Automatic annotation (TrEMBL):
Belongs to the class-I aminoacyl-tRNA synthetase family. TyrS type 2 subfamily. It catalyses: tRNA(Tyr) + L-tyrosine + ATP = L-tyrosyl-tRNA(Tyr) + AMP + diphosphate + H(+). The gene is tyrS. A motif ('HIGH' region) lies at residues 63-72. It comes from the Bacteria. This is Tyrosine--tRNA ligase. It holds the Pfam family tRNA-synt_1b. It is found in: Cytoplasm. The keyword RNA-binding applies.
Length: 416
């Protein structure tokens, strides 16, 4: 069960699929990295169609941070697609596993969170999940329901279902072991407990990012150990961020938070490259792929790619705000593109005139430090009332003015 060796795509063996099953399979495969075993998933879809019994779709979330970005919604979108097909989506809050700490992709032990931090983050997750999923039709669960009940005896029995040698096949453990980086014994428990979640939920399929493949396969293994029909697994790729290079991440500052203001969200989507846009259409849009393919063909034939990007920006902004907010954001973006000043910029009053430009930008909240402010001045990225500031030694006199840093940061400041 090594995460190093991608399993070959398995083609369904059924000679003829119904239109409903074929459509469900197409929806399942859209944008995914792997669907394993695909033939088993087809059988599950056929059974669900024949019996009218919805399949159980598991997705586990450890509430390790309160804020989500568009990268997280790649899996949420797939959950919504499967929910719209009539299946039971199970958002699983890993309040028990969070106290262990997921070692996936880590070169050090992840510190566990307190119960208070977990509960606060979980509440925020639900508020944000509701923007994509119909939580009223979902089966929301917490893995402390069965994790706490396992007790010492149950945990020892669970640990007996897997070997250390197989556990060390996992990439991050292999690298840490080879480099003599410490691995705590409790970290081996994480994939076991996540896998046991699938047993407790009797899940038919589990979704996750490509970095979760080992853990998802553990669920299949343990279900077989406990005499259940093994779940299928569906992994989704990690979304490339605004820079077009690295995965979307707050640490890389190439992300779009799903609670960001509509105008900011729209403008950030418009900033991505024309090439990256099509990947985002596949992973983030709910438009049928046939429609996306037609739009791409029109663009390759000469249509302005900006038209397609506006469609994507409006769809995403509408999802997390409203259609009216998306229309207003488009108007705001066009106004900025013409050199205009947005209507909804923050207003504040500051004292200390004459104030050095770097200090003023920091005090206005437009940069994180005076040094960053001066670097923006050096790069021509600072304007006062539309005029570029080129003198890093400028001391700004008392006045009311509009400060601008880059293309998207504005503030109306009264300096006294």
């Amino acid at each position: 069960m090594s995460s190093n060796t991608p399993a070959a795509a398995e083609q369904p063996s059924s000679p003829a699929l119904s239109d409903g099953v074929r459509h469900a399979l197409e929806v399942s495969l859209r944008g995914c990295s792997e669907l394993l075993p695909q033939a088993d998933w087809v059988k599950k879809l056929q059974r669900a169609e024949a019996t009218g019994q919805p399949l159980r779709v598991k997705f586990g979330m450890d509430p390790t941070a309160p804020d989500l970005h568009l990268g997280h919604t790649v899996v949420f979108n797939k959950l919504r697609q499967l929910q719209d097909l009539g299946h039971t989506v199970i958002p699983l809050i890993g309040d028990f596993t969070t106290m262990i700490g997921d070692p996936s992709g880590r070169n050090s032990t992840r510190p566990p969170l307190t119960r208070e931090q977990i509960e606060e983050n979980a509440r925020t997750y639900f508020d944000q999940l509701r923007l994509v999923l119909d939580l009223d039709k979902a089966e929301v669960r917490y893995n402390s329901e069965w994790g706490d009940a396992l007790g010492s005896r149950g945990m020892i029995e669970l640990a007996g279902k897997y070997t250390v040698a197989r556990m060390l096949e996992r990439d991050d453990f292999t690298k840490r072991f080879a480099s003599q980086t410490p691995i705590s014994v409790h970290e081996f428990l994480y994939p076991l407990v996540q896998g046991y979640d699938s047993v407790a939920l009797k899940s038919d399929i589990e979704l996750g990012g490509t970095d979760q493949k080992f853990n998802l396969l553990m669920g299949r293994h343990l279900q077989a150990e406990y005499g259940q029909e093994p779940q299928c697994i569906l992994t989704m790729p990690l979304l490339v961020g605004l820079d077009g290079v690295d995965k979307m991440s707050k640490s890389k500052n190439n992300y779009i938070g799903i609670t960001e203001p509509a105008n900011t969200m729209f403008a950030k989507v418009m900033s991505i490259s024309d090439t990256l846009m099509w990947n985002w259409f596949e992973l983030l849009s709910f438009r049928p792929m046939a429609e996306v393919a037609a739009l791409k063909a029109e663009t390759e034939a000469g249509r302005n790619p900006r038209d397609a990007k506006v469609m994507l920006a409006k769809e995403i902004t509408t999802r997390f705000h409203s259609a009216a907010a998306a229309e207003a954001a488009e108007a705001d973006f066009n106004n900025r593109a013409r050199g205009g000043i947005p209507d909804d910029i923050p207003e504040l009053s500051l004292s200390g005139a004459p104030m050095p430009i770097g200090n003023l930008l920091k005090a206005a909240g437009l940069v994180a430090s005076t040094g960053e402010g001066l670097r923006m001045v050096d790069g021509g990225g600072v304007r006062i009332d539309g005029t570029v500031v080129s003198d890093r030694g400028l001391k700004v006199e008392a006045a009311t003015m509009v400060l601008q840093v880059g293309k998207r940061k504005f503030a109306r400041v009264t300096l006294s």
